[in-house]
Protein backbone atom coordinates (compact mmCIF):
# COMPACT_ATOMS: atom_id res chain seq x y z
CA UNK A 1 0.00 0.00 0.00
CA UNK A 2 1.48 3.32 -1.07
CA UNK A 3 0.81 6.19 1.29
CA UNK A 4 0.14 9.43 -0.60
CA UNK A 5 2.29 12.53 -0.40
CA UNK A 6 1.34 14.60 2.71
CA UNK A 7 0.40 17.50 0.42
CA UNK A 8 -2.33 15.29 -1.06
CA UNK A 9 -4.00 14.55 2.30
CA UNK A 10 -7.40 16.21 2.67
CA UNK A 11 -8.29 17.93 5.97
CA UNK A 12 -11.96 18.49 6.84
CA UNK A 13 -12.94 20.58 9.88
CA UNK A 14 -16.35 20.24 11.52
CA UNK A 15 -18.03 21.72 14.61
CA UNK A 16 -20.76 20.03 16.66
CA UNK A 17 -22.62 21.44 19.64
CA UNK A 18 -24.37 19.23 22.17
CA UNK A 19 -25.58 19.16 25.75
CA UNK A 20 -24.77 16.64 28.46
CA UNK A 21 -26.93 13.48 28.10
CA UNK A 22 -27.77 14.22 24.45
CA UNK A 23 -26.80 12.10 21.41
CA UNK A 24 -24.32 13.19 18.73
CA UNK A 25 -23.18 11.69 15.44
CA UNK A 26 -19.59 12.42 14.41
CA UNK A 27 -19.04 11.83 10.71
CA UNK A 28 -15.98 10.44 8.98
CA UNK A 29 -16.98 10.95 5.36
CA UNK A 30 -19.90 9.65 3.35
CA UNK A 31 -18.12 6.53 2.06
CA UNK A 32 -16.82 3.78 4.33
CA UNK A 33 -13.01 4.01 4.34
CA UNK A 34 -10.85 0.94 3.86
CA UNK A 35 -9.14 1.70 7.19
CA UNK A 36 -9.96 4.25 9.90
CA UNK A 37 -9.14 5.24 13.45
CA UNK A 38 -10.97 7.66 15.75
CA UNK A 39 -8.92 9.51 18.39
CA UNK A 40 -9.90 12.08 21.03
CA UNK A 41 -8.04 15.09 22.43
CA UNK A 42 -9.20 16.85 25.57
CA UNK A 43 -9.18 20.68 25.59
CA UNK A 44 -5.76 22.09 26.42
CA UNK A 45 -3.86 18.90 25.60
CA UNK A 46 -2.00 17.67 22.55
CA UNK A 47 -2.49 14.01 23.47
CA UNK A 48 -4.59 11.89 21.10
CA UNK A 49 -6.31 8.98 22.82
CA UNK A 50 -7.67 6.19 20.58
CA UNK A 51 -11.42 5.50 20.73
CA UNK A 52 -12.27 3.15 17.87
CA UNK A 53 -10.74 1.70 14.74
CA UNK A 54 -11.21 -0.66 11.83
CA UNK A 55 -8.08 -2.02 10.20
CA UNK A 56 -10.06 -4.19 7.82
CA UNK A 57 -11.11 -6.92 10.28
CA UNK A 58 -14.16 -5.29 11.86
CA UNK A 59 -14.62 -2.29 14.10
CA UNK A 60 -13.25 -2.21 17.65
CA UNK A 61 -14.09 0.19 20.49
CA UNK A 62 -11.46 0.96 23.12
CA UNK A 63 -11.85 1.50 26.88
CA UNK A 64 -11.56 5.31 26.88
CA UNK A 65 -14.74 5.54 24.83
CA UNK A 66 -16.88 4.55 27.84
CA UNK A 67 -15.90 7.72 29.76
CA UNK A 68 -17.41 9.95 27.06
CA UNK A 69 -20.88 8.38 26.93
CA UNK A 70 -22.32 5.27 25.29
CA UNK A 71 -20.11 4.96 22.18
CA UNK A 72 -20.92 2.96 19.07
CA UNK A 73 -20.21 2.96 15.35
CA UNK A 74 -23.17 2.99 12.98
CA UNK A 75 -23.37 -0.29 11.08
CA UNK A 76 -21.43 -0.29 7.80
CA UNK A 77 -20.12 3.25 8.40
CA UNK A 78 -17.31 4.99 10.21
CA UNK A 79 -19.74 7.37 11.97
CA UNK A 80 -19.07 7.57 15.71
CA UNK A 81 -22.23 7.87 17.83
CA UNK A 82 -22.15 9.11 21.42
CA UNK A 83 -25.37 8.60 23.37
CA UNK A 84 -25.74 10.12 26.82
CA UNK A 85 -22.87 12.54 26.16
CA UNK A 86 -20.86 12.95 29.40
CA UNK A 87 -19.40 16.21 30.64
CA UNK A 88 -15.95 14.78 29.77
CA UNK A 89 -16.81 14.49 26.05
CA UNK A 90 -15.90 18.05 25.05
CA UNK A 91 -12.83 18.17 22.83
CA UNK A 92 -11.54 17.35 19.36
CA UNK A 93 -12.41 14.04 17.70
CA UNK A 94 -10.22 13.10 14.76
CA UNK A 95 -11.01 10.38 12.25
CA UNK A 96 -8.09 9.35 10.08
CA UNK A 97 -9.48 7.58 7.02
CA UNK A 98 -7.69 5.78 4.21
CA UNK A 99 -9.54 5.02 1.00
CA UNK A 100 -7.76 2.35 -1.06
CA UNK A 101 -10.16 2.37 -4.00
CA UNK A 102 -8.31 5.01 -6.01
CA UNK A 103 -4.83 5.20 -7.46
CA UNK A 104 -3.07 6.44 -5.39
CA UNK A 105 -5.00 5.79 -2.16
CA UNK A 106 -6.62 8.84 -0.54
CA UNK A 107 -6.12 9.86 3.07
CA UNK A 108 -8.56 12.21 4.79
CA UNK A 109 -8.48 13.65 8.30
CA UNK A 110 -11.82 14.72 9.79
CA UNK A 111 -11.39 17.06 12.76
CA UNK A 112 -14.62 17.51 14.73
CA UNK A 113 -14.70 20.01 17.60
CA UNK A 114 -17.41 18.96 20.08
CA UNK A 115 -18.55 21.86 22.25
CA UNK A 116 -20.84 21.19 25.20
CA UNK A 117 -23.43 23.88 25.80
CA UNK A 118 -24.93 24.37 29.20
CA UNK A 119 -28.72 24.69 29.54
CA UNK A 120 -28.50 28.51 29.63
CA UNK A 121 -26.55 28.67 26.32
CA UNK A 122 -28.97 26.24 24.72
CA UNK A 123 -32.00 28.24 25.84
CA UNK A 124 -30.54 31.51 24.52
CA UNK A 125 -29.77 29.97 21.16
CA UNK A 126 -33.13 28.25 20.74
CA UNK A 127 -35.32 31.36 20.86
CA UNK A 128 -37.22 29.87 23.82
CA UNK A 129 -37.04 31.26 27.34
CA UNK A 130 -34.96 29.27 29.85
CA UNK A 131 -36.93 26.73 31.89
CA UNK A 132 -38.33 28.12 35.13
CA UNK A 133 -36.70 26.94 38.33
CA UNK A 134 -39.75 26.58 40.57
Automatic annotation (TrEMBL):
It comes from the Eukaryota. Residues 13-117 form the Immunoglobulin domain. CDD domains: Ig. This is Immunoglobulin domain-containing protein. It comes from Cirrhinus mrigala (Mrigala).
Amino acid sequence: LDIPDPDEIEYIRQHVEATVNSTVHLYCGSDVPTLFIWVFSRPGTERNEPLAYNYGQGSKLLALASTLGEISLLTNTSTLVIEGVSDEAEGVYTCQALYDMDEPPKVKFYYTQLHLQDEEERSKGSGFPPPSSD
